[in-house]
Amino acid sequence: MAAVTDYYQSDRFTETGVGQRIYEYALVLTGDKVGTPADLPTSVAWLPDENFVPYDDRLALSDAMLSFLVGDVMLELGIYDGGQAGMSSDCTGQLH
After folding, report:
1. Is the per-residue pLDDT at 3 higher than 80?
2. Would you state the pLDDT for residue 89?
3. Could you tell me which residues come within 8 angstroms of residue 75 by beta carbon, excluding any fewer than 6 positions away?
């Protein structure tokens, strides 16, 4: 958990414009914008096509936030476990 806390507190995180990227990807998921590879979170390997059923606004925002704020962080920090369920933590409460 300490590595995740450090990631979220780092300048690198705030300088990426992740909030704007979340918004842009949510627009792709609602069908309000044609997506490009630049819109994708690292943890997502596909763009909607003509058969895609657009998400409602709330689901699009939730999915975009989850992809950027959890999926990408897990990949960057090397803590993605391939989708295996399980939990552990070394959190000492520094986010509270």
Report:
1. no
2. 67
3. 42, 43
For residue 40, the one-letter residue type is: L
Report yes or no: 44 and 67 within 8 Å, Cβ to Cβ. Answer: yes
Contact present, 19 and 64 (Cβ < 8 Å): no
SS3 50: coil
Residue whose structure tokens are 């657009």: 54
**Short-list 30, 28, 33, 23, CA closest to 68:** 23
Provide the strand spans (E) within 1-96.
none
Contacts 24+ apart (CB under 8 A), 14-21: 18/68, 18/69, 21/68
Q: What is the pLDDT of residues 38-94, one digit of tens each?
A: 999 989 988 999 899 999 999 999 999 999 888 888 888 888 665 554 556 676 766
